[in-house]
Structure to design on (1244 residues):
């Protein structure tokens, strides 16, 4: 420690496997945690108990830094690498630091993208554990979601075959209500001590959920890139095999359960959010919840360990929480609230560095308006990661497509293209500044970038209001390559933060969406399609209008159209429909089609992955 | 330790939560294992590294005891309770003992059955961990299986859209074969150094798997009782969403991957078995394997931690491995080979107690002919668990149905019914004796059983060839209640074991099936239906005829008809079809319809399960 660097930089897994790690118990002890505060998962991972929060509550918070990016190319601009590298840079400067990032889905790990533990000399280790099961949290989310899904279809079947009386007797065999049933009684405005007190009409209303199969919004999930299950018909077979209906599977990280895991601030909050999850409606359009199905308690039991954040380490041995991985398009794309709440205390006197998905218009806006609202934490600094490559694309450079070699325009100096694309950086800086937080720009340097190009970006960044703009070379040089950036972040954190949310919660849903569209995306206004207009009314009637907004929008443009680069202007944002994640606690307007289940490419990366049977080590994971 | 007993016996979870456990590291140290031999998963569970086998290889094996049962009622006769209780009984006598049992599926835990950690004062603890995710092995099995499933449908899609040339370029972008591709080249009899050496015809044969969608036998899996996904149509939507076909989901524990996890003796063996898995055939009926799809390495990587057995403890602190949970109908229904291989060394000088699923005709026969073949271990004693209730049922007692109150015949002394039913016990004893192993009968005592009834069973058991027949009261009295049984097992283990398999592997498939049908099930012969006859020929042609046989038969009768109780005679066993689990290494003839995905009942047990928010403890798990 720190890892011995060699050039050229070996593959990510070779770098990671060559590192000498600290036993995670040592990392924990260096933070003042005892063995009783942890559940070890092998030598290199541990779950931290939530009750440490109570012990740490009087400590001042660490400075809170969020890493975001300009509007990226489809290749990504190195945001995770920079996040981890910034932490390593702070560590290199002798600062106390804690990194909080998301756990990646196994789908992309075996699909197109490969792993997500950072790269080069800026990684979370062991990268195999990070990219594979970790401590099983995503599996737990899948189990909870799929138990709920099975409960829905089983209930439809049983209600279809049982009379009111037999249904009541099946559900309350001893003429007693289960504790969770009291909540449904209350919701229905029925007062009864025991099931036999119900009138026949009350019994029918209480026991018969009468779920409308066409209303069901809860999909089943699997943590694999499996496009073949995006749209399925289930319930085929015989009378005993359920009732046929169209359904679908999402990737696990796109589930509301995952969004809930990331936003819940404690076990009680988790239990309540799960209970509030709306899975669809009855035939009168009344929402049906997980609580109504009697499955919210069991789902919480499945998630109780998953709620504890996972302690790992960066390549230089500084502590990191890897916890929760909600999708950044239909969910909020930020790691967990509990990890930040604990990390910000453990790093007291230092820095908590976290990351939000995609650009400042996407994950960062949700970080502020959704995650910070849930946690109550106040950020001190935003780091915007930019690459010369992406800025050239925004300046009108040729299309960038994963799997196809880059156009020479991206590998040679081209100040003209770059200058035209700077507008995107400026727009992202302005978005961040709107929240009252100082901004530092990190230029993730590629070896084809020229000094003139870098100077141009630096100048533009500062002119647009950034505190500083620094080159980051963390991929090749680890913490040392992040030292300059770290110094700038330290300085920015000393500036006053005048943090404010973009919108208050108590304005109409329509106004909240229009605020985001005009203030963040630069649209002239919003066009609500009929389905979306219906939902504005429905969700207001149902009392969901106090929830924050989680826009489901492409990350490849500031607008809704992935082809519009730079800073799109003179357009109206179309909102096709609006959905509600009542348990997670947000509404998500759909601007375009959101993919919630990726597919495998013609040559998936799983084809390179194997076990070296001599050493027992994983090979080919990237 | 041991747990303080109270009467009446509280609920399973109350007993378990009241117990004071040893930290699992202490249990491991008492076995001579060091911290470096383990991966802790919290304080109460640990995975044991497989390389301890090398260190322990010179130790003599412990005595090897398998617990099986008579033909059970649908309620089960307490086999797991007796298994754990026998271990506690041996511990009570001061013997060294190790228990190896299966990890239960979460499906039944939340469905009808509840947990499977034993019960009363005979349990593996913590029972919440045992019944919930444990260390994530079942999730890993699901992830590996579903990656393979996604790989199949993705390959069908990509082959459908790409020319031979583009397919070849996609799969070998640098004109080089991946290591696993060499195996396919060899299989096809093609010699080539690099893809460009292939003739167009060879290129087509090599790169185009040409999977017949109607031949695919690999189902997707989920660890939930979800009958609605038994039969589904997948691949609906657009051109990009796969190709429509009928498919299905099994519960994870019914998968071949789970059977492989249970039978693999080391990492290399695991890798090879996965590579051999046949997922269907091409359009010329040639088998297509996981290796052909290039996904066997990644699947092994997903399973590398799952292969390590999970160390837990019984209520009296003796060590237990909980590892693998293959279904007992279409798979072999026994815990893992690696757990037994390690446990039998760790318990050297003492006893390894394991359990096989269902009656002696089912799990025990597979234990001997499949599991012991894979492990090379030789059993010393078989314990057959019997209940007076089940014997009365075999004597012609009223139907026993889960969820419906028991007929009084089962709660009052009825020597006549009992005597008529003893034939089933005698038949099961004879089945066990056929393998050359001494038999002890354990009468799992219910509080309605009378002394006269018990004496009658004891006498019949010894007359049928059992070494002894003892009352077991382990549910109510823990190890003390199992002491008499333990003493009988100790005595039986001193007898010579003349262990022999039922059939040699090198006889025709048909002869192996007929041997099991006539020698174990008491059938007069076997009727092979046309599909089964086709498979006899096909599998012989393919060279699968040296595999052992894993009968897929109801466990509710010695015959194929669950309604035929006692000892069915004068019948022929119908074999509808035969399937191959080439990776697991067995053929499974289907005698009737096997359910590989349970459903949720009208009142699933998940409705009782919740978190106590005051204590953070699980309530309602049974």
């Amino acid at each position: 420690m720190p890892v011995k660097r060699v050039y050229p930089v070996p593959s990510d897994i070779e770098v990671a496997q060559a590192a000498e790690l600290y036993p995670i118990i040592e990392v924990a002890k260096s933070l003042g945690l005892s063995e009783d505060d942890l559940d070890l998962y092998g030598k290199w991972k541990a779950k931290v108990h939530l009750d440490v929060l109570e012990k740490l509550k009087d400590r001042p918070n660490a400075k809170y830094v969020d890493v975001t990016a300009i509007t990226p190319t489809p290749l990504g601009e190195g945001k995770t690498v920079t996040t981890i590298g910034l932490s390593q840079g702070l560590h290199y400067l002798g600062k106390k630091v804690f990194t909080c990032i998301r756990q990646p889905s196994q789908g992309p790990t075996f699909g197109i993208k490969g792993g997500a533990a950072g790269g080069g000399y800026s990684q979370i280790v062991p990268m195999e554990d990070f990219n594979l099961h970790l401590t099983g949290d995503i599996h737990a989310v899948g189990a909870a979601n799929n138990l709920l899904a099975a409960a829905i279809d089983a209930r439809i079947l049983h209600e279809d075959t049982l009379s009111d009386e037999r249904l009541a007797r099946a559900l309350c065999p001893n003429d007693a209500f289960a504790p969770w049933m009291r909540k449904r009684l209350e919701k229905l405005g029925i007062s009864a001590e025991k099931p036999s007190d119900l009138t026949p009409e009350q019994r029918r209303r209480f026991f018969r959920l009468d779920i409308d199969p066409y209303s069901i919004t809860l999909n089943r999930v699997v943590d694999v890139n499996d496009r073949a299950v995006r749209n399925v018909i289930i319930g085929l077979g015989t009378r005993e095999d359920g009732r046929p209906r169209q359904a679908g599977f999402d990737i696990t990280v796109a589930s509301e359960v995952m969004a809930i895991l990331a936003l819940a601030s404690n076990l009680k909050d988790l239990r309540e959010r799960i209970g509030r999850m709306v899975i669809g409606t009855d035939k009168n359009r009344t929402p049906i919840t997980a609580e109504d199905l009697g499955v919210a308690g069991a789902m919480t039991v499945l998630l109780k360990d998953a709620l504890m954040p996972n302690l790992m380490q960066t390549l230089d041995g500084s502590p990191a929480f890897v916890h929760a991985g909600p999708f950044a398009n239909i969910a909020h794309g930020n790691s967990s609230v509990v990890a930040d709440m604990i990390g910000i205390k453990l790093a007291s006197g230092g820095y908590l560095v976290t990351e939000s998905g995609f650009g400042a218009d996407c994950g960062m806006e949700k970080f502020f308006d959704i995650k910070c609202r849930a946690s109550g934490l106040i950020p001190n600094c935003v780091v915007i990661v930019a690459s010369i490559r992406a800025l050239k694309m925004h300046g009108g450079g040729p299309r960038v497509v994963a799997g196809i070699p880059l156009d020479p325009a991206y590998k040679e100096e081209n100040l003209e293209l770059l200058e035209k694309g700077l507008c995107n950086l400026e727009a992202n800086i302005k978005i961040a500044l709107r929240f009252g937080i100082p901004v530092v720009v990190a230029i993730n340097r590629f070896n084809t970038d020229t000094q003139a190009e870098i100077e141009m970006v630096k100048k533009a960044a500062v002119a647009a209001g950034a505190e500083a703009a620094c080159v980051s070379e963390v991929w090749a040089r680890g913490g040392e390559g992040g030292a300059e950036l770290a110094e700038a972040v330290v300085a920015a954190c000393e500036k006053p933060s005048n943090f404010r949310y973009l919108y208050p919660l108590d304005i109409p849903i329509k106004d909240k969406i229009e605020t985001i569209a005009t203030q963040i995306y630069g649209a002239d206004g919003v066009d609500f399609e009929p389905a979306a207009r219906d939902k504005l009314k429905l969700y207001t009637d149902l009392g969901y209008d106090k929830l924050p907004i989680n826009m489901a929008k492409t990350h490849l443009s500031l607008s809704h159209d992935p082809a519009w680069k730079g800073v799109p202007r003179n357009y109206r944002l179309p909102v096709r429909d609006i959905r509600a994640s009542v348990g997670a606690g947000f509404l998500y307007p759909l601007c375009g089609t959101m993919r919630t289940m990726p597919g495998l490419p013609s040559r998936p990366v799983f084809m390179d992955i194997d076990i070296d049977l001599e050493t027992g080590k994983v090979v080919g994971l990237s």
In short: Residues 12-32+61-135+306-494 of chain B form a domain with the Rossmann fold fold (CATH 3.40.50.300). Residues 25 and 35 of chain B are 7 Å apart (CA to CA). Chain B is about 35% helix and 15% strand. Chain B has three domains: 12-32+61-135+306-494, 138-290, 509-590.
